[in-house]
From TrEMBL:
One of its GO terms (molecular function) is ATP hydrolysis activity. Signal peptide: none annotated. Residues 48-190 form the AAA+ ATPase domain. This is DUF2075 domain-containing protein. SUPFAM superfamilies: P-loop containing nucleoside triphosphate hydrolases. It comes from the Bacteria. It comes from Rubellimicrobium roseum.
Length: 298
């Protein structure tokens, strides 16, 4: 059975939904900041940086950049991706071993687990391969776990790099690593980048790009509508997608083939856009601007 989402694709003359929240490489949009973040990740890998740090708000595109990097790595690199970083240092080590496809018996002691981990790194090094451990959502690591992560880099010996670490997380991760008691970890961060929110011009280009990929032959969102999308989403790609998708559904239900600022205001006023947990209010001035349809906001 066709849904309103399927129908709105046909209604706007598109080939698919342009603002789905599901990651799709075909819609990949590289802002200047995402290019720089990728460059720093690549720099960290190429120069054998002990620790590379990438941060950004939820939905800023960190994972997109990360998976783009993974697609470029050759057979001489083995990657362990750790997304569950809760627990004490023993549990963290078990997650690491499992990410590397290594056994981590429940009854094994910490010493046994560490010996297995170190032995695996040496085996990979002897085979001409480096190991990269990527900790996604690393802001969830406890201080004890961060200290354990730092200890991993001690396995490296002079020019011989057995393991590299990539920490990816939300902005508070940078604050954690900058604390006075984390100075030893901070000193091992050789490459880092923070992905900021998109500015207004970038959001305009982002929306146009996704519509174009989805088959739009002409602009669907008015410029004032995109201005408000930027303000309400704070320039975070995932929130831009969500708000634009809602706005297109609303325009479809009103039989309007263009999304006006007034339509975006209706979405915000109805409270269907959660805005990453922040309250969004439309100011009287914004409503006044949105109502000026004679200025081309149709």
């Amino acid at each position: 059975m066709a849904t309103s989402l399927d129908i709105y694709v046909d209604f706007f003359g598109l080939t698919e939904r342009p603002f789905s929240l599901v990651p799709d490489p075909a819609f990949l949009f590289w802002s200047d900041h995402h290019r720089r973040a990728f460059a720093m990740l690549e720099y960290g890998v190429v120069t054998c940086a002990p620790v590379t740090l990438i941060t950004g708000e939820v939905g800023a595109g960190k994972t997109t950049v990360l998976f783009k990097l993974l697609a470029t790595l050759g057979d001489d690199v083995k990657v362990g991706l750790i997304t569950n970083s809760h627990g004490d240092r023993g549990e963290l080590l078990r997650w690491v071993l499992m990410a590397l496809d290594q056994p981590a018996p429940a009854d094994a002691s910490y010493v046994d687990l560490f010996a297995r981990f170190q032995g695996h790194l040496i085996t990979e090094y002897a085979a001409g391969r480096r190991v990269i451990l990527i900790f996604d959502e690393a802001q969830n690591l406890s201080r004890e776990s961060l200290e354990e992560v730092r200890m991993f880099t001690n396995i490296n010996n002079n020019k011989d790099v057995l393991v590299q670490l990539v920490l990816v997380g939300q902005p508070e991760l940078r604050d954690m690593i900058r604390r006075p008691d984390m100075i030893q970890l901070a000193q091992r961060v050789a490459a880092s980048f923070h992905i900021p929110a998109m500015d207004l011009a970038t959001v305009h280009n982002y929306v146009a790009h996704r519509l174009r990929v989805a088959g739009a032959g002409e602009p669907i969102f008015s410029e004032p509508a995109i201005d408000l999308v930027h303000d309400a989403s704070r320039g975070i790609p995932r929130l831009v997608n969500q708000l634009c998708d809602f706005a297109m559904v609303y325009a479809f239900t009103k039989d309007q083939r263009h999304v006006s600022r007034a339509t975006v205001e209706e979405v915000l006023a109805d409270g269907v856009f959660f805005a990453g947990g922040q309250t969004i209010s439309v100011t009287p001035r914004a409503r006044a601007v949105g109502d000026l349809s004679n200025r081309g906001d149709i």
